[in-house]
Amino acid sequence: MHDKTLSELAAGLSKGEFSSEELTRHFLDRIERLDGGFNAFVTPTPEQALEQARAADGLIAAGKAGPLTGLPLAHKDIFCTRGVKTSCGSKMLDNFVSPYDATVVERLAEAGVVMLGKTNMDEFAMGSSNETSYYGPVKNPWDTAKVPGGSSGGSAAAVAARLAPAATGTDTGGSIRQPAALCGITGIKPTYGRVSRWGMIAFASSLDQGGVFARSAEDAALVLGAMAGFDERDSTSVEQAVPDYAAGLEQPLKGLKVGLPKEFFGEGLDDGVRAAVDAAIAVLKDQGAELREVSLPNLGLSVPTYYVIAPAECSSNLSRYDGVRFGYRCDNPRDLEDMYKRSRGEGFGVEVQRRILVGTYALSAGYYDAYYLKAQQCRRLISEDFRKVFEDVDILVGPTSPETAFGLGERADDPVKMYLSDINTLAVNLAGLPGMSIPAGFAAGLPVGLQLIGNYFDEGRLLSVAHQYQQHTDWHRRAPEGLA
Amino acid sequence: MSLSPDQVRHIAHLARLRIDDGDVQQYATNLSRIVDFVDQLGQADTASVTPMAHPLDMVQRLRDDEVTESNHRDEYQKNAPATEAGLYLVPRVIE
Fold first, then answer.
1. In angstroms, rounded to a whole number, what is the distance separating the alpha carbons of residues A270 and B46?
2. How far off is chain B from A380, nearest CA to CA, in Å?
3. In this complex, which of A206, A307, A360 lies closest to B55 when CB atoms are compared?
């Protein structure tokens, strides 16, 4: 059962081949048996899952099932889940039991989805390797000596290892696309504002966006359709109707104008990744897509721009963790200031503290113009580059990551080297555009991801291009050894 | 530009973060690397470029000033480290 896609599982449920309870038990059993090797879950939720599954079976029996009723899914532990620990990968929230559901969680539950558990992640979503989690690193199911990518590493590993058929994630600078690439699965980050941020623990509010991991574009379309849409509780949610993504998948690639940003194919691109991406682009061309080289001249500014803006927003957002109302409080504080400082110093890990300090520095008196304002101007330049190329092309394509999964521990001591892991994904968040990563083969036995970038609110096109590609390739059907 | 240990202590104070004395040098080294790296933004020509604060250049949505939330105090205080009579307890501020 675990090797089937959501669409296949939905068909099985509706034909009565198995019940949602049986399906849910199957995945819960896999999590219990296998997750010791991956550490993809922080909190499995078997009791709630079985309760939801039985309710779904009731709906199916009554003929009241929707397309997602009874299908299991895992949530990144950044989404608040009522009555369930919501840790965000941090000691700071190790004791936090959310009193409410995030909009994403609420909408999927209303659609009949069964929650299997909460997945591991980099602490407060700050990381590119899932090594900054308070709960220990996640291992890549393709090679457990490698990282799964981050920050949504647990969700990506869970889907790749067939511990869940789909999972939610968030993407502030590549945190869905990069782990999807490194774990050989499909992941989509929609346009900023498309998915509600309400109940999604904030890291950098002008960049954070929720999305989906799945095993195919078809499955991602199904889940994203249920998550997306206006939410008045999120002040940056966009009031725009969500198209039926699943219904729009059958758009032929003939005549599609595909831009290849030359900056994605320059120095630093691994030869094996290049070969796989070139082959994937050839598939698009064979199906009638028109290729043209384009340029995003300011792309090189995206890493330094991001590493001013994201830490600045993080230092502001994370000021709420003060040991007063919820979260960790240090033992025996001497006075109020000691309580603030030690609760934060003991509750946050090293990378989170580093980013709070960088952000505080960039926003502090005398440095604001040189760093924060300058970065916001560079953000405009980067964003304008995209606006110009989208006058001529429908989508952009390139490698999601310039390399395959790197070794656990390999970059833990060098923050700048780690930051450069996201060189191909950050600009998309700075501009607020939708982006996707789909499996495009292997380099030296490790998965390669193809990144698709669309114009604003054009995630439907990304999904349909990905779906067409997946009709002509079977990379998305490959499973790590022993996990099929 | 490199950050001195004293600057790191000052920033940590602004951010209300307690950093152990033994770790200050390590933070200074890593933060200097990050600051050096982002300093390359200085080379970008941004004269007359309007800063971009939001990806969609949206206007803040407004709503009527009506009460939309009910009282969840007891439920929310279950997550609090210390409460009494519906109040959050902190160390004594005024002696």
1. 32
2. 5
3. A206
Helix axes A217-227, A103-110, angle to 10 degrees: 110
The Cα A30–Cα B94 span in angstroms is 56
Residue A226: Cβ within 10 Å count: 22
Q: In this structure, what token pair is assigned to residue A291? A: 């290729």
pLDDT of B56 higher than 90? no
CB atoms A99 and B61 under 8 Å:
no
Supply the DSSP string of A316-378, one letter for each residue: HHGGG-SSSSSS---SS-SSHHHHHHHHHHHHS-HHHHHHHHHHHHHHSTTTHIIIIIHHHHH
What is the C-alpha to C-alpha distance for residues A359 and A364, in angstroms, rounded to an integer? Answer: 8
Q: Can you list the residues of chain A whose pLDDT is less than 70?
A: none
**B19/A contact by beta carbon, under 8 A:** yes
Which pLDDT score, from 0 to 100, does residue A340 have? 98
How far apart (Å, rounded) are the C-alpha atoms in residues A159 and A176?
Answer: 12
List, in order, residues 6 or more apart from B65 with CB less than 8 Å away.
none
CA distance A189 to A204: 15
Nearest residue, CB atoms, B17 vs list A193, A308, A356 = A356
CB A405 within 8 A of CB A143: yes
Provide the chain B residues 32-91 that lie in CB contact (below 8 A) with chain A.
33-35, 37-42, 44, 46, 49-56, 58, 60-61, 63, 72, 75-76, 78-82, 88, 90-91
User: Would you call A145 an interface residue with chain B, using a CB distance cutoff of 8 Å?
Assistant: no
Neighbours of A419 (CB within 10 A): 23
pLDDT score for B58? 75
Domains in chain B: boundaries = 5-42
Interchain proximity B41–A380, CB inside 8 Å: no
> CB-based burial of residue A282 (10 Å sphere; 0-12 exposed, 13-18 middle, 19+ buried)?
exposed
Report the chain B residue with the minimal C-alpha distance to residue A362. B35
> A257 an active-site residue?
no
- Give the architecture-level CATH label for domain A6-256+392-477: Alpha-Beta Complex (3.90)
ipTM over the 0.90 cut-off: yes
Is A205 a known active-site residue?
A: no
Domain ranges of chain A: 6-256+392-477, 300-378
pLDDT confidence band for B63 (50 / 70 / 90): confident
Nearest to A377 among B12, B40, B51 (CB): B51
For A177, A207, A317, A431, B46, the CA distances from B54, given in Å and listed in that order, are 21, 8, 16, 9, 17
Summarize pLDDT for B64-81 with one digit per residue, the tens. Answer: 999 988 999 999 999 999
